[in-house]
Amino acid sequence: LARADRPELVIASSTYPADIWPARRIARLAGARLAFEVHDLWPLTPMLLGGMSRWHPFILLMQAAEDYAYRHADTVISLLPNAAAHMAARGMAPHKLHVVPNGVDPDEWQGRLAPL
Asked: Has residue 111 been placed in a domain?
């Protein structure tokens, strides 16, 4: 599939961090760039909010996936503007991060709407 369709970009998402491994393989087979999209910090979130131990097998697997993603993705895209230090501490080169804020600029919504 990767060789037949030849995508230019493969995107892995933090929704399920373990998808980074097949995503990287697909990207390599296709000669594509690999992006890791982060909207949740795994496994930090289940540890802090769910009280899971850092030594739980699930947490260890998710941590390995997150670290791998930060090290091997060509670019990291996130909605989280304050996560750069965490990502760098987990192995991401700071130049890889591109923050895309989630929200609207109220100034863009002032005044009349342009006609369709």
From this structure: no
Tally: H helices and E strands in the chain: 5, 4
Q: Are 35 and 58 in contact (CB under 8 A)?
A: no
Q: 105 pLDDT exceeds 90? A: no
Alpha-carbon distances of 78 from 60, 101, 112, rounded to whole Å: 22, 8, 32
Q: Distance (Å, rounded) from C-alpha 39 to C-alpha 92?
A: 15
Length of the chain in residues, anyone?
Answer: 116
Distance in Å from the first CA to the final CA of the chain? 40
Is residue 116, in this structure, part of any structural domain at all? Answer: no
- In-domain check, residue 89: yes
pLDDT tens-digit series, residues 27-64: 999 999 999 999 888 888 889 999 999 999 999 999 99
